[in-house]
Design brief:
Helix content is about 40%, strand content about 20%. The longest helix has about 45 residues. Among the domains are: about 80 residues, Lipocalin (Beta Barrel), CATH 2.40.128; about 60 residues, no CATH class. It has about 230 residues and is α+β, with helices and mostly antiparallel strands.
Length: about 230
C-alpha cells in the first residue's frame, strides 16, 4: 500500500458494487481501483485518457479516466460489464476533479466561453509567434553566402495532350460570410471545435448528474432493504 496521499479519489456504488479509484502522481500516474474493498487494479500510466480493465475480475467492467492536457484529474468512469454507457464516480469533496465539475455545473456559459477563448488562443498565439520570429529574422544582418549554381540537365519537352472541351458551369455566388469562413477555415475550425467540445461536456455533465443521482438512490434502497430484512 502506498503511504503518500492520493492526488485524486473517486467513489460510488454502481449496480450493487462499491467502486473506489485513487490516482497518485502527475505525469506517470499510479492508478488503483478497488471494488467491494478488493484491489482489482494497480497500474502506472502516463496516458491522459486511459481505459483499463481488471484481467482477473472481468465482471467488474471497465474503468476510464480523463486528465487535462496539464495533467489535472477530470473524471473516473466505470462501465459495468455488458453495458455501453458508463457512469462517473463521485470525486472526493474539495478535490481538483470536484472543483472542475462545480465550475462546469454552476457556470456553463462561462465554461463554454473559456474553452472557446482557448480555441482562439490556439489560433492567435502561433500567428503572433511567427510574426515575432519573422521580425527578429529580418532585423539580423545576415552574411551574404555565394552558393555555387547547380547545372541541371535539359529535359526533353513532353507532347501536349488535347483535352475535350467541358461545358461551362453556372456561376454560383456564395454569401459573403460563407466565402470568408471557407477562406479562413484553418483559423475558424479550432474555435468552432473548442465551442462544440465545451457544449458537449456541459450536456454530458448534466446527464451524468442524473445517472449518479439514480445510482445513489438505488444504493440507498438496497441498504434500506438489507437493514429491514
Amino acid at each position: 500500500m502506498p503511504t503518500d496521499a492520493p492526488l485524486q479519489t473517486w467513489e460510488l456504488r454502481v449496480d450493487g458494487r462499491a467502486h473506489r479509484v485513487e490516482v497518485r502522481g502527475s505525469v506517470s500516474r499510479r492508478i488503483q481501483w478497488w471494488v467491494d474493498g478488493d484491489l482489482v487494479l494497480d497500474k502506472k500510466s502516463a496516458d491522459d485518457k486511459p481505459r483499463l480493465t481488471a484481467p482477473d475480475r472481468p465482471e467488474v467492467g471497465a474503468l476510464s479516466l480523463r486528465f487535462s492536457g496539464l495533467g489535472k484529474p477530470r473524471r473516473a468512469t466505470v462501465t459495468p460489464q455488458g453495458q455501453l454507457t458508463g457512469i462517473d464516480l463521485d470525486p472526493e469533496e474539495d478535490s481538483p476533479a470536484a472543483a472542475y465539475e462545480d465550475r462546469v455545473r454552476a457556470n456553463p456559459r462561462r465554461y463554454a466561453l473559456v474553452q472557446t477563448a482557448g480555441g482562439v488562443a490556439a489560433v492567435v498565439v502561433p500567428i503572433l509567434v511567427t510574426l515575432l520570429l519573422a521580425r527578429v529574422a529580418f532585423s539580423i544582418d545576415w552574411p551574404d553566402w555565394d552558393l555555387p549554381s547547380i547545372p541541371w540537365p535539359n529535359l526533353p519537352s513532353l507532347p501536349s495532350i488535347p483535352l475535350p472541351d467541358l461545358p461551362d458551369l453556372p456561376d454560383v455566388s456564395l454569401p459573403g460570410w460563407l466565402e470568408w469562413a471557407l477562406d479562413n477555415a484553418h483559423f475558424v475550425w479550432p474555435v468552432i471545435l473548442a465551442f462544440v467540445v465545451a457544449r458537449g461536456e456541459i450536456a454530458r455533465r448534466r446527464k451524468q448528474d442524473e445517472l449518479r443521482a439514480r445510482a445513489r438512490a438505488e444504493a440507498q434502497d438496497r441498504d434500506d432493504g438489507e437493514a429491514s430484512s
